[in-house]
Amino acid sequence: MFNWISIAAINMAIAVALGAFGAHGLKDMVSTQQLEWWQTATLYWFVHSLGLLLVGILIRLNYATQTAAWLLQIGVIIFAGSLYAMTLGAPRWFGAITPIGGVLMIAGWLWLALSSARLTNS
């Protein structure tokens, strides 16, 4: 079993570092739109890291399954990662994979809702 609490904490550290880099290292190097992509990616990374922390706690308490954690983790990597990549110069078409990450994050939250309801009723 993965230690999702530790993984969430690492994600939060990464989000802080990437947020600081965007605020201080990129602001004079990229366009306003690119900086907005970076900020959006960082916001989602933070929010889903906190969510993953909660999911990790719920997994330990047997109120959730690891599937929710995996969906959130992979989703945020694809979502934020594609936005970070475009900010740093990846072709614009790279943004076509961003929604895949969003769908995975949505699926993770829905999986949490369904699996926690099932686990608490059994």
From TrEMBL:
InterPro entries: DUF423
Family, per entry: Belongs to the UPF0382 family.
Source species: Psychrobacter cryohalolentis (strain ATCC BAA-1226 / DSM 17306 / VKM B-2378 / K5)
Transmembrane domains' residue ranges: 43-61, 68-87, 93-114
Keyword Transmembrane carried by entry: yes
Superkingdom of the organism of origin: Bacteria
Topological category with respect to the lipid bilayer: Multi-pass membrane protein
Protein name (record): DUF423 domain-containing protein
Keyword Disulfide bond: no
GO cellular component labels: plasma membrane
Protein localization: Membrane
Keywords from the named record: Membrane, Transmembrane, Transmembrane helix
Segments forming a coiled coil: none
